[in-house]
């Protein structure tokens, strides 16, 4: 932990990386002499706080001690913001010196009883089920977990204290620091996560620093002005996974220990590609050992990982509701501001979720909204007030941006379905389903063609629902789309996001359908809530995408023996399971949003005029 | 004759039950069947070619009716008919040449003989599609469609007139000629079978001219020709990578990928839906075909129209590999429907998969759920950049001309007109 310090030299600029207003200028002069490694700040600026998981493992710190002094990079504001909390952490620390190590043991791999039991229960592999089977055990466990949690947070804070100190190093401090580093190095040589030595070092160091650091922190906390509106809304660039250094760093920090997939596709090295499924049981077993991720978030994350929550709307809602729980259970540690500390907490959760499955653009938008709201909380508000207001804001967001928007879109879209129409849709979009069912309720006479494709074969779910309701359906696969297209009169497509150059970012295969529709002169209507709009631009499907499990490709549904079963052993063979593609704007006739039917060229207008409102107001 | 009957009906059965798959296998089997039919056919003394043509046409009629989608059958029948006509004409010209010389020397011939022979020679020149010369254009020729029959009539006439003059040589001459015709035809059919068998190699030989280092090739589904083509380039030390779209719902791309990997090619399997996403990084699309129509359009495995459209969007060359036996002399009308075949829906949805949610009790009687599983796509000629056949590379607009080399115009319609 100490060794992190050299890299910890964070000047206020770095804090801009997150979704925070910059620290006040006077602060900077205070930390002046440190002159804080300027070369590093651009790097850290370029990094997204969303993409980079925060450090939380002892192992992380250790390895860093061994490794080169790393640029400050992505300490997400978690770290930078927990200033001034050391008193708490210290007290926690001293109050329970015995408890903390023992609880640690479980984490560090020697099974505590809890985790052993868990492993047994976990046989089923499906997570949600496991979580529920936990039953009463679970409740107690969660309570225990929460206890543990607070302890850990405190601990984390204590280790973080040292960072601002660095700015103002006295000789004594530097000496202490060096000592600590040495201790950390020694401990790093020992294999595995020997967190105890580090802790000792931590304690050692903390003691002499108490006096000076408290001064600094009080100042910092004190002259913090109320948060201003963020000027810079530009989303930071995504993490590129072909940058080995960063990947290494990110990996050290991650909770979800992913093993990298074999036989990766050269073209997609910049995207994370991991083996699926194997982490699930590990993660399930460590449910009771997580430190700073809220259990609800953890559960949602595991559901993402297991693929139980798949659709972008449901994912977004699940995430927001988990954050609601986080906020409800949150209490501001003394000497911290709610706005900063809570944001830090949300950031940790976000990066955890991102590890489980890369966040969708709509989720990114929702997170930005939430952070903007948290940032607006003034010191004048009491904690309960702030919490309730945040929770209602989240509720409102879900209601206004997703539920009501969907209703409005249905009303708009239904006007385009006439008697005798043959509507083609691809995959399964909840919005399209609502539109079709509503049109059916209105007694419109139309037929539906559902085009489906691997890898997910989502169309079957839609087909099932529509057939249940008595709609006349035709089902075909994506290769047959040219055959079926001459009889189609309209194409309705869902979207994961619409980018500001009018391209539609959606489930893989959407672009093919839109292209064939365009070739046969069939109008293509894309239905998308405006909260999924994004100001990013993209021209091809390769720069930014998500990779799915390649094993899905090898397995042909309904076949016992597949000829690609042993694909991983052949180094010349790769399987590529892309999740999204990009439909060029010229294939899209119109985009149906809650604001009405707009041409794809008007997307940036919506982003500009309406996108700001919920972030800034 | 009874032997061939059994053979034919066996083959018909296989065609009807779709036991034979792939145009190459079908073409080969058809050619072999026709060869045995020819060898067992008893020929009358007169108008042997006509009788042979008639017999082949009758069988061809049945064969094409058994599987109208498999145009390779019709192609081969037409090729064999064309062979018979050509052999017949070449025999006739040879004999007429001999006869007219004879006539001139004998000096007691009929007046009309040279005239007929000249007409027959001209007709022969036309039917064998020699480059037209000014002389043939200037001569007075019977209409093209009647050329062959004119030639046959000339043969008949001349043989009878020759018979008048020379009694001795008559029977031996006839026998040898009938045997010669059969022999020649069977020889030629053998060559045809040989051609079908070796078309892969001939096509693969051209691979190096089209595939270069570090290229990215996309293909869909499986085709023997494509495998050979890619491997030939690989053997010439070209290093390139191949994206294979799996080709739902039969997923033959998997077998193709496995084969390519076994031969040491860098292969990436993608889903069919990822074609549009990946095509921007592809240098060339190389696919096989089911049939090539006279207008340059392609009947191809399902999904290729989508690939061709994506390739056109990104200006990626769309190359079709096709042996000449896939070249169909017909111009398609509404080929998406008429030259297509719907496969079993169980390839997409298991029977009964949706049965639990369907209400059979009420409703209008028409089923709510249709599953469409077409086997072929039609790729219009404007989306095809190049055909690579065993005779070289061709533009789609040139295909109609190739047809004239391999088929005679009389055979384009196989169905025999009802005799009134």
UniProtKB/TrEMBL annotation, chain A:
**Polar residues: bias regions:** 28-48
Q: Which GO terms describe its molecular function?
A: transferase activity; translation initiation factor activity
Residue ranges, annotated region (Disordered) = 1-63, 142-256
**Compositionally biased spans, kind Low complexity:** 178-193
Superkingdom field: Eukaryota
Query: Known Pfam families for this protein?
Result: IF-2B
| Gene3D superfamilies from the UniProt entry | Translation initiation factor eif-2b, domain 2
Q: Which InterPro entries match?
A: IF-2B-related, IF_2B-like_C, NagB/RpiA_transferase-like
Residue ranges with Basic and acidic residues bias: 1-14, 216-248
Q: Which UniProt keywords apply?
A: Initiation factor, Protein biosynthesis, Transferase
Q: Which family does it belong to?
A: Belongs to the eIF-2B alpha/beta/delta subunits family.
Q: What is this protein called?
A: Translation initiation factor eIF2B subunit delta
Q: Tell me the lineage of the source organism.
A: Eukaryota, Viridiplantae, Streptophyta, Embryophyta, Tracheophyta
UniProtKB/TrEMBL annotation, chain B:
Q: Which GO terms describe its biological process?
A: translational initiation
Name of the protein described by the UniProt record? Translation initiation factor eIF2B subunit beta
Sorted alphabetically, which keywords does the UniProt record give?
A: Cytoplasm, Initiation factor, Protein biosynthesis, Transferase
Question: Does Transferase count among this protein's keywords?
Answer: yes
Basic and acidic residues bias: start-end ranges: 165-176
**What domain of life does the UniProt record list for this protein's source?**
Eukaryota
Gene3D superfamilies, per the entry = Translation initiation factor eif-2b, domain 2
User: Quaternary form?
Assistant: Component of the translation initiation factor 2B (eIF2B) complex which is a heterodecamer of two sets of five different subunits: alpha, beta, gamma, delta and epsilon. Subunits alpha, beta and delta comprise a regulatory subcomplex and subunits epsilon and gamma comprise a catalytic subcomplex. Within the complex, the hexameric regulatory complex resides at the center, with the two heterodimeric catalytic subcomplexes bound on opposite sides.
Any Gene Ontology CC annotation: cytoplasmic stress granule
Q: Which organism is it from?
A: Helianthus annuus (Common sunflower)
A GO molecular function assigned to this protein is: translation initiation factor activity
Entry-linked PANTHER family: TRANSLATION INITIATION FACTOR EIF-2B SUBUNIT BETA
């Amino acid at each position: 932990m100490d060794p992190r310090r050299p890299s910890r030299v964070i000047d206020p600029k770095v804090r801009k990386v997150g979704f925070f207003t910059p620290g006040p200028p006077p602060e900077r002069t205070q930390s002046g002499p440190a002159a804080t490694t300027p070369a590093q700040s651009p790097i850290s600026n370029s990094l997204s706080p969303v993409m980079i998981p925060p450090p939380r493992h002892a192992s992380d710190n250790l390895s860093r001690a061994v490794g080169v002094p790393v640029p400050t990079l992505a300490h997400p504001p978690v770290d930078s913001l927990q200033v001034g909390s050391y008193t708490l952490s210290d007290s926690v620390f001293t109050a329970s010196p015995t408890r903390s190590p023992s609880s640690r043991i479980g984490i560090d791999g020697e099974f505590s009883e809890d985790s052993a039991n868990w492993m047994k229960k976990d046989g089923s592999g499906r997570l949600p089920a496991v979580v529920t089977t936990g039953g009463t055990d679970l409740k107690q466990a969660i309570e225990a977990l929460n206890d543990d949690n607070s302890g850990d947070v405190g601990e984390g804070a204590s280790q973080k204290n040292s960072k601002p100190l660095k700015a103002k190093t006295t000789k004594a401090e530097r000496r202490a620091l060096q000592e600590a580093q040495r201790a950390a190095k020694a401990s790093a040589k020992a294999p595995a996560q020997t967190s105890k030595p580090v802790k000792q070092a931590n304690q050692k160091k903390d003691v002499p620093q108490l006096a000076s650091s408290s001064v600094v922190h009080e100042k910092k906390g004190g002259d913090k002005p109320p948060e201003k509106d963020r000027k810079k809304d530009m989303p930071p660039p995504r993490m590129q996974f072909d940058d080995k250094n960063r990947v290494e760093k990110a990996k050290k920090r991650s909770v979800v220990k992913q093993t990298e997939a074999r036989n990766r596709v050269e073209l997609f090295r910049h995207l994370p590609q991991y083996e699926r499924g194997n982490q699930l049981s590990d993660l399930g077993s460590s449910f009771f050992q997580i430190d700073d991720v809220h259990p609800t978030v953890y559960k949602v994350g595991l559901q993402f990982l297991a693929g139980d929550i798949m659709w972008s709307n449901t994912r977004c809602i699940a995430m927001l509701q988990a954050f609601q729980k986080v906020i409800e259970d949150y209490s501001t540690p003394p000497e911290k501001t709610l706005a900063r500390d809570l944001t830090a907490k949300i950031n940790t959760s976000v990066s955890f979720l991102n590890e489980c499955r890369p966040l969708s653009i709509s989720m990114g938008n929702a997170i930005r909204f939430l952070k903007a709201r948290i940032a607006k909380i003034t010191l004048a508000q009491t904690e309960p007030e702030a919490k309730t207001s945040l929770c209602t804001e989240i509720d409102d967001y879900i209601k206004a941006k997703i539920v009501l928007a969907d209703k409005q879109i249905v009303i708009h879209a239904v006007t385009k379905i006439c008697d005798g129409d043959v509507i083609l849709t691809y995959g399964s979009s909840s919005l399209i389903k609502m539109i079709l069912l509503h049109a059916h309720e209105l007694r419109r006479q139309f037929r539906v063609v559902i085009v489906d494709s691997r890898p997910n074969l989502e169309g079957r779910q839609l087909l099932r629902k529509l057939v249940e309701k008595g709609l006349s359906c035709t089902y075909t696969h994506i290769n047959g789309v040219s055959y079926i297209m001459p009889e189609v009169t309209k194409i309705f497509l869902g979207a994961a996001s619409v980018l500001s150059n009018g391209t539609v970012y959606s489930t893989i295969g959407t672009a093919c359908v839109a292209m064939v529709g365009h070739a046969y002169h069939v109008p293509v209507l894309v239905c998308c809530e405006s909260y999924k709009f994004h100001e990013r631009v993209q021209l091809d499907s390769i720069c930014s995408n998500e990779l799915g499990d390649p094993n899905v490709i090898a397995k042909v549904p309904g076949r016992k023996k597949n000829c690609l079963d042993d694909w991983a052993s052949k180094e010349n063979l790769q399987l590529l399971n892309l999740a999204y593609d990009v439909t060029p704007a010229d294939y899209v006739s119109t985009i149906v949003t809650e604001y009405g039917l707009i041409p794809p060229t008007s997307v940036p207008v919506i982003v500009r005029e309406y996108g700001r409102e919920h972030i800034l107001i | 004759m009874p032997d061939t009957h059994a053979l034919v009906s066996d083959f018909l059965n296989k065609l009807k039950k779709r036991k034979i798959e792939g145009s190459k296998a079908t073409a080969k089997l058809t050619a072999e069947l026709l060869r045995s039919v020819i060898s067992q056919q008893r020929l009358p003394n007169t108008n042997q070619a006509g009788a042979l043509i008639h017999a082949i046409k009758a069988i061809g009629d049945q064969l094409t009716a058994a599987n109208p989608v498999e145009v390779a059958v019709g192609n081969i029948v037409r090729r064999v008919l064309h062979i018979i006509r050509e052999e017949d004409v070449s025999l006739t010209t040879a004999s007429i040449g001999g006869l007219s010389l004879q006539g001139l020397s004998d000096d007691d011939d009929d007046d009309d003989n040279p005239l007929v022979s000249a007409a027959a020679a001209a007709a022969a020149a036309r039917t064998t599609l020699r480059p037209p010369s000014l002389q043939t254009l200037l001569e007075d020729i019977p209409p093209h469609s009647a050329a062959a029959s004119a030639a046959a009539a000339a043969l008949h006439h001349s043989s009878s007139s020759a018979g008048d003059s020379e009694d001795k040589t008559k029977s031996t001459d006839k026998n040898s000629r009938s045997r010669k015709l059969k022999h020649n035809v069977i020889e030629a059919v053998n060559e045809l079978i040989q051609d079908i068998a070796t078309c892969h190699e001939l096509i693969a030989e051209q691979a190096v001219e089209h595939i270069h280092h570090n290229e990215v090739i996309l293909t869909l589904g499986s085709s023997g020709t494509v495998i050979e083509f890619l491997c030939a380039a690989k053997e010439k030390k070209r290093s390139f990578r191949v994206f294979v779209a799996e080709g739902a719902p039969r997923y033959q791309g998997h077998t193709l990928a496995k084969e390519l990997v076994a031969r040491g090619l860098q292969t990436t399997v993608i889903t069919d839906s990822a074609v549009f996403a990946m095509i921007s990084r592809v240098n060339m699309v190389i696919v096989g075909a089911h049939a090539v129509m006279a207008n340059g359009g392609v009947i191809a495995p399902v999904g290729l129209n989508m690939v061709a459209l994506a390739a056109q969007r990104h200006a990626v060359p769309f190359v079709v590999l096709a042996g000449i036996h896939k070249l169909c002399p017909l111009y398609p009308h509404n080929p998406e429907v008429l030259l297509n075949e719907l496969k079993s829906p169980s390839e997409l949805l298991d029977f009964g998969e949706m049965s639990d949610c369907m209400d059979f009790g009420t409703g209008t009687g028409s089923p709510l759920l249709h599953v469409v599983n077409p086997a072929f796509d039609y790729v219009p000629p404007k989306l095809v950049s190049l055909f690579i056949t065993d005779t070289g590379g061709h533009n789609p607009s040139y295909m109609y001309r190739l047809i004239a080399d391999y088929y005679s115009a009389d055979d384009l319609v196989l169905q025999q007109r009802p005799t009134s």
